[in-house]
Records
---
Amino acid sequence: MDTMERAIDIQLEDLKKMILLMGGHVEKSLAQVTAALLSRDVDMFSGVHDIEKLINEDHIRVDNACMHVLAKQGPVAKDLRLIISVLKINNDLERMGDQTVNISYSGKDYLGRKPIQQQLSDIQKMSEIAGRMVKGSLDSFVRGDVEQAKKILLMDDEIDALKNKVFQDAMAHMKAHSDDVEAGMDLILIARNLERLGDHATNIAEDVIFAFTGKDVRHGGKFG
Amino acid sequence: MDTMERAIDIQLEDLKKMILLMGGHVEKSLAQVTAALLSRDVDMFSGVHDIEKLINEDHIRVDNACMHVLAKQGPVAKDLRLIISVLKINNDLERMGDQTVNISYSGKDYLGRKPIQQQLSDIQKMSEIAGRMVKGSLDSFVRGDVEQAKKILLMDDEIDALKNKVFQDAMAHMKAHSDDVEAGMDLILIARNLERLGDHATNIAEDVIFAFTGKDVRHGGKFG
């Protein structure tokens, strides 16, 4: 390690590591609920609650670490932007954890009902894209890779299109099979939560662009 | 004004004023979409987009103001907690603005369909509670009233119960009237967005408790 390294650099690296660890928990939780749903294994959903506890602990830990660095170092400019971004990313990851828990509830309901014809392939695709968005947005954050962050913003359109497809297919099915109204609703709620996961990854990508360029691309970048 | 007042106190007061202004925009947006829905006046929904622009501007302005105070004053302890809370509240209010926009989309869809029997009284109640939660959480923030903030946390149960009722009633209706599947879904999505509005007000109340007591009540207060 360069002996000229500033104390704050070490603390910022620690913050990044905490965010990566937390992001890993979110990815794991998403993978778990998706596997449970696709393999129709209700018992697998319970693992999500153990991961949620870890994510909630991460959430508090990251906030406290940010407060500590802000209070001790009084950072400015790029360092300050990075810490503000960590605070925001922390919030987004925590919400993502909540969304995987929501998926586990809807998924459990869904598996408890009479199986319906509707394919889960779109849900599977949505989960894959959401997973790549989480991983990609955090990679871009840790490496300060603004170009990678911009690619995440485009992936959000894919997941939105799939959500619309799931909504339409499920509603068509519900109209034709009134016994399956609840099951169709479960799929709609799952798709909605996956879409929201993508939205949060998009927020993270926007925060990365802000942290490393100082450019505010939120709300179309009109007010930055 | 007390001449001994610190420069940071003036800046913190300015932050509070910005948050109140932004909260006023969110309240107005919620009132507008609710009135449009209940009076079946589709044209009223368009006003929401003008308010959303204001909320997005507020969002960027508050973030920038917080960054400025953090960089210039290097605040610690209670002052730092207050600014971190403003950053979080800012995020919640912006999401609430998005939720009112979502309600306007679902509301517009709903009014464009054949009217269904389902009462909107529960939606109206949910909107009223959500409005009181927004107002109350921001009041508690500006006045540093932790007791008031705690009351907001309880109101969230009311809004959740109403959401469950709207879900159940709408699904029962959809089962009995397959022509109304889309309309029922619109009501479900509106109820879901109102519930999310309540969740964000709850977040704000939790931030108020943290800012003024240093006590972290998130995630059951287990990790604070």
---
Amino acid sequence: MAPKALDYESMNENVKKVQYAVRGELYLRASELQKEGKKIIFTNVGNPHALGQRPLTFPRQVVALCQAPFLLDDPNVGIVFPADAIARAKHYLSLTSGGLGAYSDSRGIPGVRKEVAEFIERRDGYPSDPELIFLTDGASKGVMQTLNCVIRGEGDGVLVPVPQYPLYSATISLLGGSLVPYYLEETANWGLDIIDLQQSVAQARSKGITVRAMVIINPGNPTGQCLSEANLREILRFCYQENLVLLGDEVYQQNIYQDERPFVSSKKVLMDMGLPFSKEVQLVSFHTVSKGYWGECGQRGGYFEMTNIPPKTVDEIYKIASIALSPNVPAQIFMGLMVNPLKPGDISYEQFVRESKGILESLRRRARMMTDGFNSCRNVVCNFTEGAMYSFPQIRLPPKAIEAAKRAGKVPDVFYCLRLLEATGISTVPGSGFGQKEGVFHLRTTILPAEEDMPAIMESFKKFNDEFMEQYEDYRGYSRM
Amino acid sequence: MAPKALDYESMNENVKKVQYAVRGELYLRASELQKEGKKIIFTNVGNPHALGQRPLTFPRQVVALCQAPFLLDDPNVGIVFPADAIARAKHYLSLTSGGLGAYSDSRGIPGVRKEVAEFIERRDGYPSDPELIFLTDGASKGVMQTLNCVIRGEGDGVLVPVPQYPLYSATISLLGGSLVPYYLEETANWGLDIIDLQQSVAQARSKGITVRAMVIINPGNPTGQCLSEANLREILRFCYQENLVLLGDEVYQQNIYQDERPFVSSKKVLMDMGLPFSKEVQLVSFHTVSKGYWGECGQRGGYFEMTNIPPKTVDEIYKIASIALSPNVPAQIFMGLMVNPLKPGDISYEQFVRESKGILESLRRRARMMTDGFNSCRNVVCNFTEGAMYSFPQIRLPPKAIEAAKRAGKVPDVFYCLRLLEATGISTVPGSGFGQKEGVFHLRTTILPAEEDMPAIMESFKKFNDEFMEQYEDYRGYSRM
């Protein structure tokens, strides 16, 4: 009998081509080990609550009340919920038509989109139009929708940083497009070089690829760098010259661990540049409730804002969003709460500030502990995590380790990460899942393990690594730069 | 300058080809009128809470507590929440790793998938494997993922009933596949004729299309029929013979308004048929928390169960699901609560039964009121709504009305529905959005307006319709059958 449509041989090839390392071999092996009773430290996904971060109290109170609107009529509600949470729940319910159980408009609740626009205006100092803001089930869904509009076939290319977050490579494969890599420069703290960008585009063109869009991740994932205003300006000028849509993945905009270079949005830089850029460059920027000090990953809330996208295209994106009816409504309320937070004087304000500052300051300390820890290990070098939630150390694998990996049928960094997992329970993602230069190896870990566990984790990492290096190094030593 | 990637001319053509009438011209016009202050009765989407249906208390209590886990340590929690809701919240939180704020496994929380499997086993009397059940953000997302694996290009066809729910036509367009229509027979209460199916396949083949899958919607949307066991058996045998994957959209399985023909799942019928069918036919079945007496559309919770899908394919689907990390977690809890409801003796059991029975019985009365109402109108005939949430009356438009529509540049049923909207505020979806035979016209309305409003709505409809018919009919009368 002929293969059936859902037999592996017969499936859509684009599906099979997709690679998704964040939940790939390492994650699957870690899940197995966990089932067998081994203690696993999951640092493969930026999933703070899974590693013990507690949710912010106030937004959870508001959403709990929105889920249980009958409590708003209960005379005892004030015993367990503060008055400002009750008021906010009433506010958000009044913005819905039918509460959390009704589909919203496919673009999201108009009142919440208005609050997002006000947030962007305050952040950037430029007007923002709620009609050009769509709420989504997490930022990923917005990225996928946007790329779906951009990519028409394998002749269409999208510039993606290497290393990159595999959402981009996976989505481009799934949509049958072509990924055009540009390399971030590790020795320049993962900076972005415009000359390198131009070369990537030229190379893609020589292969017959039309480069149509460019992705930046700022702050960087997995690389942790913050792009400077000057660098963003160069990028936007480049997009203008090359006629590229810019996808600005700005989901880590609240996660900044140094004071020298605050987050600046692509939208603000574009508006600052003035004409012709501010009216010409097509920009789609993404944000989420999953990161920042919220870390509400499981809620799946995000938005994207479109700049210089023509109304007819906005209508098409609206139509596509409508196929799945609406993003989940509870996460839309979280988004409202994120962009329109408590103000000084509100009853819950001090608690909210204490909780959110506590998380951010601890992340900053953890970024430092982790980077320093990696840099104290044999054959490991690591740029400081300026932002986002990850460390991306380079692991200088000795030739004998690379040979051993080959004998085991593994990519060298996968081999290293599997050995690390078996020895210590630390579940990381090999650098090959994000892309890296030929012959150079990394791993990605989140900086999210609980602060009190961090010294023991880094010690356990160092013990494994240094023994691994000892095992595979020539006695003459190994000194590749 | 060349068009930019997100200029309309330059976008992915598959995006532009998508049609999505449920939120199309009628919906947009209704939204405009609402902004202008007109009272609109939105019957375009099966969105019960938007039309005043109140959520079931118990599941909302449980999810509210899961959102506010700190309440579980509050000595006063028992003042506003019953003990069984507290116990259930603890149960579901124990199944997560990190509560509602953490991404779950991309397939959904293992413990909830186990509860779904137990539900299916009780329903069908056959084993169900949690590893073959994936939770999704509403059933739509699961349908889109499945079709994404099936469709490789325009040479791949999917059999879709006409009239159909436009999720299918829209997704097939977006994925660049070919829709192969098969017609449901209105005069046989929207039954499905196997000979017609065979003709559809033969016709598609003659055009060079490989038919790879078939969609059934049972109970039907927009048509409201329930498929008999004998009919399902024929369909499954047909899928076996023609080597087709069956997509069983069973989201309305709790919405049954007659006693003669209970819902039977495709999975049960397939297992009943025994070898070779039960081991050969590839089946994916879909369910949701959006319908039934829950109507929790805004939460976006669903699942799909795979039968006879090889493990390598399941791995591929898992990988694709991983790109967007995880379905939203709160809706996974709703799914657990739906498939594992309260039992006699639980504190909240009686209230739960009272609320859910109240909703279902009212829907049954409304289905009757609506069908009878339509059948009392001039030139309108309507099959009884046996299940689901819709009425799909045929509107026999007089030739002069069809001419008037042409002059206005509108499809005739769109013309009628727009006039209905302007005159009465009732926002329906024209039959052309679902597909219908040439020269035959329908509209779809949900049966969801509040029961107490129903007589006035049907009266207002009748007044509009009968005047419309009066206006456009020859004085000699119009009697097309």
---
Amino acid sequence: MIPRYSRKEMADIWEPANRFHIWFLIEAHACDALADLGVIPKEAAKAVWAGGDKPYTDERIAKIDEIERVTKHDVIAFLTELAEHIGPDSRFVHQGMTSSDVLDTCLAVQMTQAADILLADLDRVLAALKKRAIETKEAICIGRSHGIHAEPTTFGVKLAGHYAAFKRNRDRLLAARADIATCAISGAVGTFANIDPRVEEHVAAKLGLTPEPMSTQVIPRDRHAAFFATLAVIAGSIENLAIEIRHLQRTELREAEEYFSPGQKGSSAMPHKRNPVLTENMTGLARMIRAYALPALENVALWHERDISHSSVERMIGPDATVTLDFALNRLAGVVENLVVYPENMLANLNSLGGLHNSQRVLLQLTQAGMSREDAYKAVQRNAMESWKTGKSFQNLLKADEEVARHLQDDAIDALFDLGYHVKHVDTILDRVFAEDA
Amino acid sequence: MIPRYSRKEMADIWEPANRFHIWFLIEAHACDALADLGVIPKEAAKAVWAGGDKPYTDERIAKIDEIERVTKHDVIAFLTELAEHIGPDSRFVHQGMTSSDVLDTCLAVQMTQAADILLADLDRVLAALKKRAIETKEAICIGRSHGIHAEPTTFGVKLAGHYAAFKRNRDRLLAARADIATCAISGAVGTFANIDPRVEEHVAAKLGLTPEPMSTQVIPRDRHAAFFATLAVIAGSIENLAIEIRHLQRTELREAEEYFSPGQKGSSAMPHKRNPVLTENMTGLARMIRAYALPALENVALWHERDISHSSVERMIGPDATVTLDFALNRLAGVVENLVVYPENMLANLNSLGGLHNSQRVLLQLTQAGMSREDAYKAVQRNAMESWKTGKSFQNLLKADEEVARHLQDDAIDALFDLGYHVKHVDTILDRVFAEDA
Amino acid sequence: MIPRYSRKEMADIWEPANRFHIWFLIEAHACDALADLGVIPKEAAKAVWAGGDKPYTDERIAKIDEIERVTKHDVIAFLTELAEHIGPDSRFVHQGMTSSDVLDTCLAVQMTQAADILLADLDRVLAALKKRAIETKEAICIGRSHGIHAEPTTFGVKLAGHYAAFKRNRDRLLAARADIATCAISGAVGTFANIDPRVEEHVAAKLGLTPEPMSTQVIPRDRHAAFFATLAVIAGSIENLAIEIRHLQRTELREAEEYFSPGQKGSSAMPHKRNPVLTENMTGLARMIRAYALPALENVALWHERDISHSSVERMIGPDATVTLDFALNRLAGVVENLVVYPENMLANLNSLGGLHNSQRVLLQLTQAGMSREDAYKAVQRNAMESWKTGKSFQNLLKADEEVARHLQDDAIDALFDLGYHVKHVDTILDRVFAEDA
Amino acid sequence: MIPRYSRKEMADIWEPANRFHIWFLIEAHACDALADLGVIPKEAAKAVWAGGDKPYTDERIAKIDEIERVTKHDVIAFLTELAEHIGPDSRFVHQGMTSSDVLDTCLAVQMTQAADILLADLDRVLAALKKRAIETKEAICIGRSHGIHAEPTTFGVKLAGHYAAFKRNRDRLLAARADIATCAISGAVGTFANIDPRVEEHVAAKLGLTPEPMSTQVIPRDRHAAFFATLAVIAGSIENLAIEIRHLQRTELREAEEYFSPGQKGSSAMPHKRNPVLTENMTGLARMIRAYALPALENVALWHERDISHSSVERMIGPDATVTLDFALNRLAGVVENLVVYPENMLANLNSLGGLHNSQRVLLQLTQAGMSREDAYKAVQRNAMESWKTGKSFQNLLKADEEVARHLQDDAIDALFDLGYHVKHVDTILDRVFAEDA
């Protein structure tokens, strides 16, 4: 995570102000539950809220840091500073809890906050893709397999495919969010020896989490692994669309282009030098987000009830993965929203091979008109080769071929070059993709 | 995937006999749909089933291989061989379809078959963990954080935690299975130009798949990425439990051991040399399964409507990841089912520090008995240190400490060393973990 | 590793026949050393060679497998079968050694054998690149940054760049080979308690290895990690060249193409449908080779003197990574050797923008002719824009521009469109790249 | 990279002040070369040094940022600010160069600076390991395979093994440093069309780099991949030693411990609760450093002469990987330097099985005394089992065994329990490991 690739809203989740505020909420809600259970006085719980429920200013954070330099323990430093605001009742705070109860539950809250932003990001990407897909659903272009012209499709269909992928990613992220949205307040090794399980239930409910069925001082890390693995899958889809756009913007294709603002200079005097730098950038960011999933997967196998090897990893990938993905998704949404599409170039590219993409269709029709498959194949290939080598119109060559003419008249041949044939199911496809949105 | 780490049932999914049989089913069901639509004669569809629905013997497979060496195209070789069994009606087979329609839909079927075996594997692991957890729920042992004694827990609680993780993994795998269970019969670039979408719907229904809302010759690879990423998460949980057992089997702990058959020799004359080789082996296998997720994540970003870079990857990780995970899960289930548990060693280890794990509890009680937290801390630490250095009983030292004695009488101290305190919520925890199973 | 992507020579390294033969060599050389040291009779050492030095036939291997099924120990099974060939003196074999001495040293031999094949593969790739680079060093083509036309280069220069990368990879592989070429015969925890260090020295010398300075039953795994990481770097270079070719073969570029044999059919009736399937395939294989490095990196951190978690990993990635890389390098060499190059298409693509790639050069010349940089920039961009939008010749537009004409005459402008300017240092570059080969 | 895990010296390399200063050096040295070649006036080159060679203060950096917000181009912003300090001669700066010439060469300088710090870090680790290895070379402890007691070794031998690994890592890093220490000043696509190759040679020499034989606007990324892969291998060795220490600090072993400062509190009142948090932390950091190698490996395959997908990756992993590794190595050195070693616990653990680790040796001696291997094995196992189950002394049991007594007298048995047997080659091993240091 570096400022260049960060958005403030997401970065703020990982700032001390937010973290300490969440810590406070955990402690204060726990006090309420402890008070209800008669473990601490009800007045104490009230005092905690009254004294402590205020923003963590830079001044307060500096104070906590100062204390931590002495105690070398972050939660103790936090509690010490908090005590100054609460007064004597502060001794009832944190009763029966361990630091991990606070830290792990806080991480769960931060990750759900991050997930919520990412879900909104995905919604922005989805909205952009849908809008542009519908706009361009009739923009016919050549479909390419292996980078080679295959058969026609439309630009809208391309975008609809990416929409469907991001829709799946949204579902996956929702599942991953649920996976990490648990609360653990269970004590030193998760046995609730020193704290009633009902405290955990109360705090969980207040923070929008579910109680962790079985924690061992820490929330089990397969949850986090599944979360970061999901971000990696989403990164793959970003890369997929980014590479599509990078390809289409190549000088020789120029079927679509990242938007250039009027004042923006290309990298030189050459006006064609509009580089797809945003999608190239996302390609790199996708690599990073994928990489962050690995240490998360290795974090699962902690020793016994816990070791702390996961902590340094999460201090890094927690912010890094979510901030980078948030940035990439927003950049992607912007690229899609403003993408400049060139339908005329699409058609020019499609036609550059003289209608050769209809060769299979001609072959099929010849067979149905009575030729054997072998003869039909030879006739089609003979004319296709000629067209390919000389640049002559495939359509005209077919008409001039005696053997073909015996089976298909000119108008029948012309009918085989109708682009509508290829795109007749565009609405079917878009209906399927957008079906659930209705 | 190597024979040493393979189980036949899973390996067979990736054998030619199964693959060709699935190809046949796809083609035959497609013929039914085409016949219903009037595209091909109903008699032809019947002829396909009548002639072709029989096992792919080694002889048939050898024949297909022989043809492929000439045509250099696997699907054509398959169709040529099939034609011999069907007769003239074979020309109606594969009408309007592309090879990828067959290949990708077949892969989806193979992956769902693999997922079903893995789900059964997880069920076996879950059953073993639950059984052993309930059996050992009262086997008190020391919980360890950072490898250091913390507070007591029970062996059953440990196992319940792993049960919960594998339960989550089961849910994740179910989602991943749904993700890859789609059928694509949509033609060269997914536009249905040459085939009616209803064919895809019919084949999907017959094969237990859902129609892929938007394919582009290929089924989008974010689905496969999510699948293999899920296997990687499961591998993490295997490693987690494997490492727990490896730790417990260490010479100095010996709280649990992989089962050794009566005739089995250790690696030497030393009877203690019972190495946790199965769980060590699983640790390595987990690394492999994690690694296989990476190329699957990189496969998402195919060029345009498709390139074929994913194919070599999937030919390798398809079998490798599922066979290895299947093997590891079964090995794990066996280890858990037969795990030898030593409750007496657990107690001995727990007591080896003379009850020091109760120091926090003593501290808490002294505070409630009126000591300031600072004084209580000093008193506890003074005696804990003495016990730690000299090996004397912490419990006895406390009784002999004058300051402590002023606040707590001997029987009050003894009460603080009751193990029941730590395990009073064991049933609560197990109930939470096993709740949904009822 | 699957047969489809395997070459026999490399795959054979990992077959039992080679493994058992290496085991025999280790044991027999060790006997020689033990005999020299007077630990065992000289006659015994001779008997070992006399009886045991013969190929491991399928029959012998089956016998060993049969014994292993009973003893469940591979080295013991091997020694038992060997004893039948040696007679009573066989009891002197393996004295003071541990199984790992044999297994780890054998792996070292196998990896050096694999490395030698890979070095030969790299030589084939290098030879092909050099030959084609020199052949095509004057084939001018447009250089592309961001997929967008930049300035001219030549195809030979492109290939020379890849040559340089593979030359570096050769050096890296040599270093990695040296890293894993060590021999360990040091006993149960590497202390030589039961075997004289001179045995290790002798065996190492005979097998072309160096004695491992410090083994702990096993050879330290950072060596293997460095080896597999190096294979991953080489895979990156394969992918880099593969992607270059895939790009150049795109329908719109067609500057180079994988060779198609005369009889080879494209995937359809369309003759342009020559897909870069070999380089796409290599792209996928590169992903796999990269992935195999990961578990090798995780293998470094074994527990204490050793655990066996690395073993399952190496049984898989040992063959998988080397066989796959060997296959990919040979496929790559073949693609380069037979690559069809289209210099006329290169020129056509280069000129498709009407010489716009000289805009910077024109700008520079106008400045030197006295215009301010700002004015020169405006003049160039004005004409470049016009050319870009209308397709008119940039060169002619400049001549017709009054402001430009005031500073540059027609022949001066023409001189700026000389392609020679861009390629004047081609020989300098090739000399640098091929310098060390002389 | 987060402040918590950063050391200033390494972090500063990646700060703007250092980057801009390197940019200046590249430009100024290039001016010298251009002046020597007569391309620009000699006075101009002097003016560049005279005006520009001063530190990049926060003020200057803020100015550059301000300009970049307008121009959206970092190198142009840099040049504009620089011009203010140089005056009119500034127009001669950057002649014929591209931004990448500056950026990529700067990255090479930064990476060599980082490598030099890492080499010094490794030297610190090596010095600490060697010192402690020699100190503890006679501290006998049990060697453990699979976590199970095997045969005796010494703590110094353990450390010597890690020393050897870090020595290899030093060699690997030196090679990796050489790999990335190249300079590219070759223009838009690396053809030197607008700049003489001698400029590159001059700048390279001045900056301690070698000229890149073949750049394509960018320095080829296999170099960077090899560099980051090497850091990943080093991380593996860190993890390996970290895990050894974590194991030895376990409550049940306590053979070594991270140093606790006198004032430092454990996490509770329990004095044994000294957690190996530093080595656990390094375990996590190692995971991160490994992960950073992946995107570096994916960066190799840029499109054609370059795309910019590598840039975002390197902006992140450049600092992240080097800063994290620097931090981890220094933390590791500190841990080793101050490691508390408990030889008495080592002996106690070694003896806890009553000398069973000598069973193989007894077996061997019985054979040499005339027993058949089968009978000897049975005799040894009988007594070993008894010792293992009852805790009785293995040594005494052997003496009391009639069959054993027939072959070995009491003093012969006692001789087999001499620890010196196992450690007689300790100096041999240390000599081998430290040989090259002489």
